Amino acid sequence: MTKRMLDRLITTLLFAFLLVAAVPPAMAQTTTSGAFRNLSAIETTLLRGVTSKAEVRKQLGIPNGSGAARFATLGGDEREIWYYEDVEITGAHSGEQGMKMDMRQQILLVLFKGDVVDGYLWTSNSGALESK
Amino acid sequence: MISQRRALLLGALALIQGCATQSEMQAAAPAPSEGKLLAIRVEPCTDRTGTKSRDLAAEATRLIVERLQKNPKFEVRDDAAVTLNCEVTHYVEGSAIKRWLMPGWGSTVGQISVMVSSAKDHSVIAIIQGNVTVSAGGLYTIGAENYILGSAADDVVSKLSVWAANPAPAEKQ
Prior knowledge:
The complex is a heterodimer. Chain A is of the alpha+beta class.
């Protein structure tokens, strides 16, 4: 391979790199690990004794996990539990001391008695965590 | 001045291909052993990615049904005691040119989540997630976006197949 051919190859590669880099990325601005994102909709979505499993799945998606537990305070009857998690990078900024990333982590447990919602528990670090 | 070694390195880079499969399975109960074949009712899939350029929900439904029908362990039937719900939970078209220039850049990603539940009481029997990523490779990875969901569906059905063949406790899956 001659030097001229190599130069031409490198020029072509650089041109392709610049061309591709100029195109805005198709990826969304945020990165997430699950379908469950909107906590504000939970209170209107999950109604105790009313909302069915199919409705929960429609609203929040397929859970990340499931299981069952007996609660002494609920009479010792078994409740099916669906587990949802959402780990989301909500922003990234370059600062003086390197890259800063904003991350949000949310966990939701939905309890079912038979086919309907019997309660839920959730936690979120929204607005509280920042990593460098 | 460009050395010949650098040119060879560039050539080798163009030939590298990276395709990774990452899957998760959680089985709450062994597969029902009602007969030789496990009958499954497949509900239409849902697209959670918001992709407008393609009907990913219809594609995923077709792919899952096709894979199940080809597998000798399953029978797709509307009156089955087990229901399968599926969702396309992640899809990124990616770019073969970006992958060619820099591995990890322009990755093509496809992820399908599946929930198997009892048709009788809707209790969850198994949850499976199949994730396939093409993160590096030459220009011959062009079109990865066309087969990525099929690979994710293959992964999901192979996990289902193991579950159906070996009705072991959930901890052993």
